């Protein structure tokens, strides 16, 4: 099997991740509830994971690391904390439904900063023009469809200058690119645990600059008498028992990322991306969405004039190549890039992929066409 | 002698204990005895040795946000800060 659907979930993880999950299942209870040894062991694991994440993302205090179910959960908390019906919100033209649907559900007034694919100067100009008068900005760091790396630090600077709070969707960048809380100065940064951080599915992190508004109320293991959620982090946003097994795995995943180094991970994925672009450039009837791999992470979308995207993905699947076709829950991005009618086939890499994976996949694609 | 420094959350208690451990002061995170917290369940850090040093270090790092108790010879908790 060649697994190239890492933008959805990094299925192949460091071995330490599954070991930690199993160990947690066998030895850990609920953190922040009992005071017995299995509960305190769980509490230590959760705290260690907060500390690892705080170090990786340059967050001053581990309290600001809130565990969520996934990035969507974190984005929903962030959006519900800062947006209401009629709130004027500026988003990029590359957002995922996990941003745009919660905004639409709230009845927020969504404005889109449009710019051509991979054109960061145009994206920045669009934000600069449209930010005045906005009450909130939400922006992805990397497009989940095209791997396009948006100029998030410059966008964050514009937001600070305009006094507009910013929510960053770091779903595709966490664990691959520098996500620096202090440099961004964002109100919230949401990310999954199960992609570039190599945690299990069902894990996510929301980095908070403010207490936010809870989506869920319930037990927090602290201040039990008042019938409102505590006003401090992380308890305020973490009602109910934690996903200790998942967090135990996530801790090991983050350790792997820190030990490997972001530069090394990005360089490896970019090498694979370049190899794939090089192999497939010039293949008749194939359109590749790439910018010479410059403003692009380890994600490549393509489409064929001969095969529709779902067909191509299914045929590759029959040959053991796992990719994702369609709209990738990102109609905004496909509309911006002009691929809404057909979707694309997306190949996404991880440090556990090799050049051979790329070469064999490219050969399969050529054979299909 | 045992001292308890009340913490507003488990994470805060863990962070406090970690800070003290880095300075070689042994501190453990414990569930606070009911009655010491006015708002229900809570956590504290328990310190047996180098208490004054620990308190100063936490204060210097703005890490004290709860009451401080000393356990007397009779097992009672006496508020000292």
- CATH topology name of the largest domain in chain A: Aspartate Aminotransferase, domain 2
Largest interface, with counts of residues having CB < 8 Å to the other chain, equals:
A-B, 23 and 18 residues
Oligomeric category: heterodimer
What's the alpha carbon Rg of chain B, rounded to whole Å? Answer: 11 Å
Specify Rg of chain A, calculated over alpha carbons: 21 Å
Q: Give the overall form of chain A.
A: globular
Q: For the residues shown, what is the average pLDDT of chain A?
A: 97
H/E element sequence of chain A: EHHEHEHEHEHEHEEHHEEHEEHEH
* Unreliable spans of chain A: none
Question: How many structural domains of chain B?
Answer: 1
Helicity level of chain A, as a percent range? 40-55%
Give the CATH level 1 class of the largest domain in chain A.
Alpha Beta
CATH superfamily of the largest domain in chain A: Type I PLP-dependent aspartate aminotransferase-like (Major domain)
- CATH homologous superfamily of chain B? Hypothetical protein rpa1041
| Through-space gap between termini of chain A | 21 Å
Strand order of the largest sheet of chain B: 2-3-1-4-5
Based on secondary structure, the structural category of chain B is alpha+beta
- Share of β-strand residues of chain A: 5-15%
């Amino acid at each position: 099997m060649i697994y190239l659907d890492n933008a959805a979930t990094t299925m192949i993880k460091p071995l330490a991740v599954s070991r930690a999950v199993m160990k947690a299942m066998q030895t850990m209870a609920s953190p922040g509830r009992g005071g017995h040894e299995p509960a305190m062991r769980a509490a230590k694991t959760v705290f260690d994971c907060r500390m690892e994440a705080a170090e990786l993302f340059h967050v001053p205090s581990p309290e600001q690391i809130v565990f969520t179910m996934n990035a969507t959960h974190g984005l929903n908390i962030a959006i519900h904390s800062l947006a209401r019906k009629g709130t004027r919100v500026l988003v990029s033209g590359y957002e995922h439904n996990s941003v745009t649907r919660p905004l639409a559900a709230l009845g927020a007034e969504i404005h889109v900063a449009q710019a051509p694919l991979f054109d960061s100067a145009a994206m920045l100009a669009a934000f600069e023009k449209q930010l005045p008068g906005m009450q909130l900005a939400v922006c992805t760091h990397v497009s989940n469809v095209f791997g396009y790396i948006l100029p998030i630090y410059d966008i964050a600077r514009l937001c600070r200058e305009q006094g507009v709070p910013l929510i960053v969707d770091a779903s595709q960048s966490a664990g691959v690119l520098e996500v620096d809380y202090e440099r961004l100065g964002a109100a919230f940064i949401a990310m999954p645990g199960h992609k570039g951080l190599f945690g299990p599915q069902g894990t996510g992190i929301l980095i908070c600059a403010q207490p936010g508004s809870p989506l869920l109320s319930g037990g927090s293991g602290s201040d039990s008498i008042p019938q409102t959620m505590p006003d401090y982090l992380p308890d305020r946003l973490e009602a109910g028992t934690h996903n200790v097994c998942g967090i135990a795995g996530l801790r090991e995943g983050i350790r792997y990322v820190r030990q490997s180094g972001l530069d090394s991970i990005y360089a490896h994925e970019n090498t694979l991306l370049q190899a794939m672009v090089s192999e497939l450039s010039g293949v008749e009837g194939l359109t590749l969405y790439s910018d010479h791999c410059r403003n692009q992470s380890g994600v490549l979308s393509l489409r064929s004039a001969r095969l529709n995207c779902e067909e191509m993905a299914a045929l590759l699947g029959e040959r053991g190549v796992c990719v994702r076709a369609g709209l990738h829950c990102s109609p905004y991005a496909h509309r911006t890039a002009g691929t809404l009618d057909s979707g694309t086939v997306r190949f996404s890499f991880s440090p556990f992929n090799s050049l051979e994976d790329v070469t064999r996949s490219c050969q399969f694609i050529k054979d299909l066409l | 002698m045992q001292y308890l420094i009340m913490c507003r959350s488990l994470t805060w208690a863990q962070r406090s204990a970690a800070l003290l451990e880095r300075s070689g002061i042994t501190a453990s995170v414990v569930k606070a005895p009911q009655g010491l917290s006015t708002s229900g369940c809570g956590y504290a850090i328990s310190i047996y040795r180098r208490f004054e040093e620990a308190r100063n270090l936490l204060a210097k790092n703005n890490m004290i946000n709860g009451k401080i108790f000393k356990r007397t010879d009779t097992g009672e908790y006496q508020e000292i800060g």
